[in-house]
Amino acid sequence: MKIGFIGLGKMGGNMVERLLNSGHEIVVYNLTSKEIDSAVSKGAVAAENVQDMLNKLPQRKAVWLMVPSGKPVDENIELLKAGMNSGDIIIDGGNSYWKDTVKRSKMLEENGIHFIDCGTSGGIWGLKNGYCLMSGGNKESAEYLFPVFKALAPEGGYTYCGASGAGHYVKMVHNGIEYGMMQAYAEGFEILKTSKFNIDVENVAKGWMHGSVVQSWLLELAVKAFNEDPGLEGIKGYVEDSGEGRWTVEAAIEQNVPAHVITASLFTRFESRQPDSFAMKVLAALRNQFGGHRVIKNETK
User: Does residue 23 register a pLDDT over 60?
Assistant: First the structure.
């Protein structure tokens, strides 16, 4: 199949390479030329701009967007819409908010353009292992794109989830679950690390990878991280969130679902960014006020 691909970052570039390795023809465009040149060296066809990309695609055009959520998605949709016809397809493979996806799909329907939302998991390892894909939108278009999904995903790793927005909704919840799993591992390893037994956490993690109910790809990545930096001395405990955890918590609130673990893991990420939390200062001050408990003074004051 011949499709267009916009966005050749850490995931997008690898996805293009995996598609090329499976025999697909890919016309690529990116804001910077270095990534385009890299894709071309692997067999892709370069486009000078979005319209040039569309001109190089077959009669029924399909373009995959792998750009940051929000404004970049809308900007590319506007450019594509101007040169697309009824029945053409835009795929958003990024982590867009599912409510935005539904709005975009309805807007494009007015022009007869089909909008497929495809949650994509696999990170930088997807080129080798494949990407877990979760799609939503027009079912006929999803079936038309199946050769592309099949090439990107490992065996059994592609799921059609339902109407427009369903793919991004499922990916959102997927990432919310990921937040909770990562937090559980993090807390468990800290308990091990701070015990009186001088436990080698890397060794334990390696053992858990064989026959344990907590074995997983995340645990495998923890082993890799411990191997590269046993005490994790080279990194700060500062953890960002890219939005999906927040959206999952919002969905839980809207749907009256008690999501204790995911919510707590999100708030812990917020806490990791506070070098000196005002809330913790208030707690210390209150303990001192009612019980005379010791407070540690700030040396700069």
Answer: yes
Tell me the CA distances in angstroms from 36 to 49, 51, 61, 126, one per residue in order.
11, 16, 20, 19
pLDDT at 100: 98
Q: 25-29 and 45-46: which strand pairing?
A: parallel
CA distances from 265 to 39, 249, 260, 268 (A): 37, 10, 9, 5
Question: Residue 115 phi/psi, 5° resolution?
Answer: -115, 115
At residue 301, does pLDDT exceed 60? no
What is the secondary structure of 150-167 as a DSSP string?
A: HHHSPTT-EEEEESTTHH
Average pLDDT, the chain: 95
Give the residue numbers annotated as catalytic, written as ranges: 171, 178
Residue 77 to residue 120: CA distance in whole angstroms:
19
d(CA 134, CA 169): 9
| Percent of the chain scoring above 90 in pLDDT | 87
